[in-house]
Design a protein that fits this description.
The protein contains 16 helices and eleven strands. It has 391 residues and is an alpha/beta fold. The protein binds adenosine-5'-diphosphate and magnesium ion (MG).
Length: 391
């Protein structure tokens, strides 16, 4: 049995709400995405783009790839705002080191090992063909991962990367490139390049499904030798709304509370406390957008009721909801029999700056629907619903 001190120490390793996963034991699900990366590596001349929303687990997947695929050298680079084509390749090449055996020159001399380092040539503006030339005499399979590619604003870099993918695909099929970033489509991330259609595979990183989210909880509690009430698990899964960040956050606070009160089981009481802390700990922009959306001088806060109804509404595959879905929830939670017109004003306002742009209208004028502008907001609103009812 672990002591409470040991459990608290482990807790910070097991629940990492703000850091990507770096340990295969803590990495849950994403089998489809891993299988697709395997195909990309195995099919010569193929490359990949992994795209999805913020916080869905893209970097965690990238970290885990180098532990799963052991027969290939992997260099992972995190791009930033100031990077360009040259700096990202410099960083990437620095991460690859080969040990080569030198041919002995004289009689009776033993072969010696030497380290081969890769460099971009010293030319004014290196381009795709310069990158290609580096790998001409390197037979090893190498996977280059460029994470946070969306943070690069330099258009020329995107064009040169697209050219590089094409050239490598034609001439150096043992080199694989995977580009990762926040985007809702591949084109948004790397631009439009018809010549890449055949050699670039798209991998979407969706929100995690309910089973994956629940598995994060079971797996972590197992390591911590803790149990949880079924109601704690189902509520945490529901509130997280597919975001692993919120599962880690809620479980961290709840488990900490349980351990420090010597409870071997996490209960609803612990969840109530965890929700308060998690709201407090949430990102500043989320909190201020929410505060703007629900501000009201009245006791009966209709903006809050409408926003809560949005978070509870049934969504389609694009995560959008219609006025009738919202109205159904609104009438349920306020115990009214209101018509569409009575919430239309609030819905319109929630799409405006003075209400924090919390919703975005999608679809055509005749058949528009709504979406949370920042998808994470849905989880934050659900925590507030719980807190309002309990608190
Ligand atoms: N497969 C996973 N299993 C368990 N936790 C995960 C998984 N993927 C992501 N997480 C957790 O979710 C949060 C966001 O993950 P991260 O990889 O940083 O997302 P992204 O790079 O898409 O913004 C982190 O707290 C991370 O620990
Ligand atoms: Mg990331």
């Amino acid at each position: 049995m672990k002591t409470n001190e040991e459990k608290i120490q482990l807790l910070y390793e097991v629940f990492s709400p703000s850091a990507p996963i770096e340990n295969t034991e803590l990495f849950i699900g994403r089998r489809t995405q891993i299988a697709r990366v395997r195909d990309i590596i195995e099919e010569r001349g193929h490359h990949g783009v992994i795209y999805g929303g913020r916080g869905v687990g893209k970097t965690s997947l990238a970290n885990i790839l180098s532990m799963i695929f052991e027969n290939i050298s992997i260099a992972k680079v995190t791009c930033n705002r100031t990077d360009n084509f040259v700096t990202i390749w410099q960083k990437a090449l620095k991460k690859i080191r080969f040990v080569a055996q030198n041919q002995p020159v004289g009689f009776n001399t033993k072969p010696e090992n030497s380290i081969i380092e890769l460099y971009l040539p010293d030319v004014e503006s290196p381009d795709a063909s310069d990158v290609e030339a580096i790998f001409e005499n390197i037979p090893d399979n190498i996977l280059f991962i460029f994470d946070e590619f969306d943070s690069i604003s330099d258009e020329e870099t995107k064009i040169k990367m697209a050219d590089t993918i094409k050239v490598l695909s034609d001439n150096n099929p043992h080199i694989t490139i995977i580009i990762i970033g926040i985007a809702d489509s591949v084109t948004k991330l790397i631009g439009e390049h018809p010549s890449l259609e055949r050699c670039v595979r798209q991998i979407e990183m969706p929100l995690m499904n309910l089973e994956e989210i629940a598995e994060i909880i079971y797996n972590s509690l197992d390591i911590l030798q803790l149990k949880a009430e079924a109601d704690f698990i189902s509520k945490t899964v529901e509130y997280a709304s597919g975001f692993p960040h919120y599962v880690h956050l809620l479980c961290k606070f709840a488990a900490k509370r349980a351990i420090s009160s010597n409870s071997p089981i996490i209960t609803g009481e612990h969840l109530n406390v965890a929700i308060k802390y998690s709201i407090e700990d949430s990102n500043h922009s989320i909190k201020s957008s929410f505060a703007a959306a629900v501000k009201s001088a009245r006791r009966q806060n209709q903006f809050q009721d409408v926003l809560f109804s949005c978070a509870l509404s049934k969504v389609d595959s694009e995560n959008s909801f219609g006025t009738s879905d919202i109205l159904r929830e609104y009438n349920r939670i306020t115990k009214q029999n209101a018509e569409r017109e009575s919430i239309a004003y609030n819905l319109g306002m929630l799409c405006k700056e003075e209400r924090g742009f919390i919703l975005t209208k999608v679809g055509t004028a005749k058949k528009y629907r709504f979406r949370f502008t920042n998808p994470v907001m849905k989880a934050f609103v659900k925590l507030n619903i719980h807190n309002t009812i309990i608190g």
